[in-house]
Design goal:
2 helices; single chain; 6-stranded mixed β-sheet; alpha+beta
Length: 136
């Protein structure tokens, strides 16, 4: 009987963990002017890229390799863990983010798609023509 109760408890816990949103849908403060969705990935867009600019070529959910192939390497990068890193028994994505800075263009943020993967999905595009290109 104890094994049955344990199995039910684990099954319910697994289902409730699957019901919570994870991945790139949450980008922090929740006050984002626009969100674009492409192939089950949501990326937040802050500002409007100039037509013909590097950032105008980007789509939500693109990998780091795709972005670098389209617009070249960033001026600088920075990485940080998120609060999800500290949730016990959390095995979803978005526990680590990588920020890429492009001088005169803005900032891109990449997040994990699943547990243990590198920060690879584009989730946030911040357009800033005055961007210095370096983490502040």
């Amino acid at each position: 009987m104890k094994k049955w109760k344990l199995l039910v408890f684990v099954a319910i816990g697994s289902l409730s963990a699957c019901a919570t949103p994870s991945g790139g849908a949450s980008a922090g403060s929740g006050s984002h002017p626009a969100a674009k969705t492409h192939a089950k990935h949501t990326a937040y867009l802050n500002g409007k890229p100039r037509p013909g600019s590097k950032f105008a070529k980007l789509r939500p959910g693109m990998s780091r390799q795709e972005v670098q192939g389209l617009i070249g390497p960033p001026t600088s990068t920075a990485g940080h863990i998120t609060g999800k890193q500290f949730i016990p028994f959390y095995f979803g994505g978005d526990t680590y983010r990588t920020d890429w800075y492009y001088k005169g263009e803005g900032e891109l943020t990449f997040s994990q798609r699943y547990f243990g993967s590198p920060a690879e999905g584009l989730i946030y595009i911040r357009v800033n023509p005055k961007e210095s290109g370096y983490h502040k």
